[in-house]
Design goal:
The protein is mainly β and 90 residues long. Helices cover 11% and strands 33% of the residues. The protein has a 5-stranded antiparallel beta sheet with strand order 4-3-2-1-5, with helices on one face. The longest helix has 10 residues, at 69-78.
Length: 90
């Protein structure tokens, strides 16, 4: 795992955070099903796709490292990278 870097991008239309490691990208996908509760936020899970699979959305993505740490850690856990603390940085 040494040397794996993670890059983040935000979809300008939805505000969703994507992450990329190598030639794969983690995309938030809405999970349907279960009991619906009025006012509840939708639930999303990350799924991995090849980078070329999101080429249609590329123009809407803004590359950034300014992502809240809890969201960074969610993505880092998905990629099996160590979590960050509030004092560490990449």
């Amino acid at each position: 795992m040494f040397g794996r870097r993670i890059a983040f991008a935000v979809d300008r239309n939805t505000g969703m955070v994507y992450s990329r490691v190598g030639e794969r990208v983690a995309v938030p996908v809405r999970v349907e099903g279960g009991i619906r509760v009025r006012g509840a936020k939708p639930h999303y899970e990350l799924e991995s796709f090849p980078v070329y699979a999101i080429r249609e959305r590329w123009a809407n993505l803004l590359s950034t490292q300014r992502v809240p740490i809890h969201i960074q850690n969610y993505h880092r856990e998905f990629w099996r990278l160590p979590k960050l603390t509030s004092t560490s940085s990449e």
